[in-house]
Amino acid sequence: MKSRLLRFASLFLLSLVLVTACNGTTIVTSRPEQPPLEVGYNLWPGLFPIAIAQEKEFFTAQGVKVKPVYIQNFLESVSEFTAGQYDGVAITVGSLMSIIGKNPDVQIAMATDESSGSDSIVVRPDVKSVADLKGKRLGVRLGDGELFVSQMLQKHGLTTDDVTLVNVEGEAVPARFKSGDIQAGHTWEPYLSEVTKSGGRVLFTSKDTPGLISTVIVFRTSVVRDRPQDIQAFIRAWFQAQDYWKANPEESKALIAKTLSIKPEEVSTEGVKLYTLKDNLKAFTPGSTTESLYHTAKLYSDFYIRTGGLSTAPDIQKLINPSFVQPLQAGS
């Protein structure tokens, strides 16, 4: 009798283990597959690594699905992000400050580059110096490029009150310049070459304002919260693409031209300083120069508050998120 009871108990326990095991397999579910990380970018040399990473499948190699959304026009890409499209977007710090009122829940995850001569103030041949701009019409995207223009004028004893600022996108400067509507304008390549070919000349460049015009990748705070590993993988792939470009310049030039439907000769980083990991580590460290994003963001924030573009200063400590580039330091 005792033997039968022991056998029964053993069978009962075995059955219980099997049921538990079976139940265990039914309740364990794999993590649902994440949709591709959508990142908007535009025709700017500092952003070309995203095209390389896409074509060479570096994103996949780093463990993230990415859907780069290429829009030639910078303002259009920013507008679509502002309207709720994309998980992230490439944007200048100045433009970010101009939309922060509508999109406060964003965070800077990495810095891609700074304009180091590409952004220029171009003028008609009769304008020989900055002083000659007095009374002239100067085309600039109000807000975003206004601080750049303001610093140029201040360096030569003028203020924005001495000129007539006309709200013109950099892409539209060549046509407005040619029509005579403006006598000077803020633009960049490839539009800069269009102006110089039509008789304009460069008066002032971003070489004189290092770090002021920098481009960053921002993600919505919800994406930062829910998909930090994907953002980390995106950044690793970015630097992998940047290294590949450096090691294989001709192949990369052809690849970029094909992906973006531009001519190979238009693929140039002249006047643009691509940010390495080392540059990013500096940028994500608080400082008192424009090497630091904290300082640059504060300059724009103060400017927008002063000119009425912002009613409340953003929390820069929350806006800038160093947690994505700092862990890469060990491999730098």
Characterization of this structure:
Keywords: Signal. Its main location: periplasm. This is ABC transporter substrate-binding protein. It is found in: Periplasm. It comes from Funiculus sociatus GB2-A5. The protein is of the alpha/beta class and 332 residues long. It has 2 domains: 197 residues, Periplasmic binding protein-like II (D-Maltodextrin-Binding Protein, domain 2, 3-Layer(aba) Sandwich), CATH 3.40.190; 89 residues, Periplasmic binding protein-like II (D-Maltodextrin-Binding Protein, domain 2, 3-Layer(aba) Sandwich). The protein is 42% helix and 17% strand. Strands 2-1-3-10-4-11 form a 6-stranded mixed β-sheet. The protein has a 5-stranded mixed β-sheet with strand order 7-6-8-5-9, sandwiched between helices. Strand 6, helix 6 and strand 7 form a beta-alpha-beta unit. Helix 2 crosses helix 11, helix 5 packs across helix 13 and helix 10 crosses helix 11.
